[in-house]
Every structure is written in structure tokens, then in C-alpha cells.
Amino acid sequence: MATYSEPVIGDWYINMDGHFIRAWGCVYEYGRLNGVVIQPLNGGRYYISLTRWRDLKPVRYAATREARSGMVLS
Fold this sequence. Notes:
The protein is 14% helix and 38% strand. By secondary structure, it is mainly beta. It has one domain.
């Protein structure tokens, strides 16, 4: 059974629908994690609550070193 951790800023995830999303930022309220700013592949940025983040059941995507550094291989 997979467990879903708190988001790591800059990491890519695959949600339960098979879509790639990036944890672009975290939103804190009174010192506690309250939401996540996600960035899908289309480049937009969207705020979602921490509950919604967990409902997506994101799994961290293990990208190659080149992909993490922004290089595109052809």
C-alpha cells in the first residue's frame, strides 16, 4: 500500500489519474502546512488545499538527472 507524503517543492509527481504535476510551492498558515501550489505540464499554477493534495494521491516521479536539471534530450 502506498503512502502519500507531504509535497517537496520542485519535485514532480504523478497523480491517480496519470497526470504529471509539480509541487511549485507550499502555503503555510499559522506555521502549519495548509495548501500546495501545483504546476501541471501546461505551465499554469494553481492553489489547492492540503486535503485536495492528499486526495490526488500523488506519487513522486523519479526523473533522470538530466530531466531534473531542465535538459531536454532528443
